[in-house]
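Researcher: I've been going back and forth with a colleague about how CRM domain-containing protein might be arranged in three dimensions. Neither of us has a model we trust, so I'd like an independent prediction. The organism is Gossypium barbadense, in case that matters for your notes. Sequence below.
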Amino acid sequence: MPILASLPGLNLLSSLPSNPPQNDTTSSTPSPSPPIPIPKYPPPRSRNPKTNVPRSNPALSIPHRRSNYRKPVQKGVISTDGDRCVIVGENGVSYKLPGAPFEFQYSYSETPNAEPIAIREPAYLPFAPPTMPRPWTGKAPLKKSKKNIPLFDSFNPPPPGKKGVKHVEKPGPFPFGKYPKEGKTREEILGEPLKKWEIKMLVKPLLSDNRQVNLGRDGLTHNMLDLIHTHWKRRRVCKIKCKGVPTVDMDNVCRHIEEKTGGKIIHRVGGVVYLFRGRNYNYRTRPQYPVMLWKPATPVYPKLIQEAPEGLTKAEADEFRKKGKSLLPICTLAKNGMYASLVKDVRDAFEECPLVKIDCKGLQPSDYKKIGAKLKELVPCILLSFDDEQILMWRGRDWKSMYGDTSSNLVPVKADILSGIDNSAKSSDDSGTPDSQRVVSSPKMMSLWRRAIESNKALLLEELALGPDAVLDKVEEFEGMSLAIEHSCEALVLSSEDGSSSSSSAEFKGGSYSEDENDIYSSDDIIDDEYYDDNSFEEVDPSIPLGLLPVDNIAERLRRESK
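Model: Here is an independent structure prediction for CRM domain-containing protein. You can compare it with whatever you and your colleague have in mind.
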């Protein structure tokens, strides 16, 4: 470093030259090109373009279920399309088509009785238009097929052994010598009422069969009508299994099924219904209904829960709701369950408490609200709350007991020992003497006691001062009398003029022991308007054989004396 500093004209702290020397292009070698070309990306797009975006198709802006579309409606026609129109009435929203036998609805059995106050979508008919041009597909339409496919005729079904054809049941059943005939009205298609043996023959093969129509929370829907006729195409009886909300009122479901399909319910067990198509049913002449392409949005109905229900002030209603929080529910409803006994359970619960609560945990809100609306009409009652997935009901001020006046149901304490009434519920009369002590029994228990006494199945001991031996004698005497009344049957003894007698065998009211050969077609076997609810198709044998009762000994003695 000292040597460099001593050199003349050398400045170690001088800066670099401002203009660097130019490189000699002739002497420098060109730089090698990269092996992969550098990609050229387009310029980035601006996030907020100022260009005008074209408007979307108006068909995509139709209100849907999650939109806040609400249009108030009144009773009458709200939309028309030529001869087809949408009507709002007592049955909710219905659709009237030219030539239709009745006004179409999405659900026939689960429509509330209240009139809707608004609709959630524009009033369109959920059916295909009457005329629709063929859309252009780039190809000419297909030529008409030369095959002449015959229509399915129930009166002329294909032979049983035909290849590729499923089993088809013939019309009927018919008595000997009778054949199917064309019918137009419901009575003509159903034909003569079925006998009990015919019902057994039709229903018994379907008891364990899983070919059925499932009826759920929407009840009897419009498209289910065509499905039932599809089942009737090959079978005489259609099996319908009902679950969920519609089972609260099974009579209503059965009535709508018979009205809309034209069939006849011949057997019903719980939520399972067996629908007979008729003796003269023909699939070729069945009523054909248009298919509903989508489920219409449910209209808006008045609120079920009011702050101050009828007969209560707001303070009283809040007090009832507060008490209902600590009230135990009478039952818990399962999802897709069978609720046929729910109305009876609620009525029985109102006999003991003015408030009744039902637990509905696990059910959809729309389901237990529909159940509450049905109970409000069938019980009847007043709905107070749907909080915590529970239905809270009040029986109302105009409630009347099913068993009469409860204040007059006073019976002696000693006479209530057999009924299981707790002795702690004793109450004294105005006199206050021990002999006048009385207890208040429930109206249901008093009704059962009264019915048992009238049918000689119970005995009221008026002489309360009887000893143990006297009471035992009374009980033994009553036991023999009640058994004779319960197990005896009508006996008829006929005597002739010449002294000989002949007695006919004991004859039941149902005619099961009749010796008439034509009894199988008697009027006793015809089912008229009642549903056949017998769960068992077999005869029930009596618990005591004939000939072992005192009344049989009396008949035998009279028979011997007449000889």
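Researcher: What would you highlight for our discussion?
Model: I'd start with this: The radius of gyration is 42 Å. After that, consider the following. Residues 69-117 form one domain.
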